[in-house]
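Pilot study result, target chain (254 residues):
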Amino acid sequence: VQGGAATTEDQIKYGWNYALLVSEGPSTRSLVPAPMLKGMAAGKVVRFEEITRCPLEVQDCLLSLLSERVLAVPELDGPDGMVFATSGFNVIATANTRDRGVNEMSAALKRRFNFETVFPIADFDTEVALVEAESAALLRRSGVEPAPDRDLLEVLVATFRELRSPDAGGGRSGSAVLSTAEAVSVAHAVGVRGWFLRQEPGSAADLVTCLAGTAAKDSPDDLARLRRFLEQQAERRKGGRWRELYDARHLLAD
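Predicted structure:
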């Protein structure tokens, strides 16, 4: 299930084929099972993406399913009106609690989940390797021949790690968009710009341009934080790519 503001209860539990519903009435033929009903009947794991983006009333429809492990279909008579969870059924939900505009889960729903917090990758080399592998795969799909520049990726990852640190923002950490997944997206955008504009791997100037869009799309504070980093920190770093990054700082929009 992909959660969102437009997600409805029908998309989680079940809906109807209205042509059959009108001609035959409620029946198993006219019933259209949604992921939760399918998972319960088959004993499968249901993955619920961005559960906190769903309206609260949609979230609350999960309470009885998770506690009683039974889904009622009141429109059907007899045994078909109750779907009991088969062994193996479970729900894995994801949520970005730092994102703005989400609907906080109720305490009742939280009690029905075990929580595991995924922290940013601690090791620098591991994060660089992940960004390199994922961005290379995306670039191949986009028809870009050159592999990502390793030195430029190290600059990108180091910049994101610095901006995520509270020390880079006057005691406040960067927003949720400055994640490893966003670093992969930026690396892909840099490679696409370099290849289709100049038939070469992306440059530090491309990186500054793409970083500006990433920082500005969620919080003006992130853009100011990026500008301070380029002006005050990038010049002190060793390496040609860092120097190129510093020289391209004028590409940031005011």
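One observation from the pilot: The chain has two domains: 9-110, 124-251. A full batch analysis is planned for the follow-on phase.
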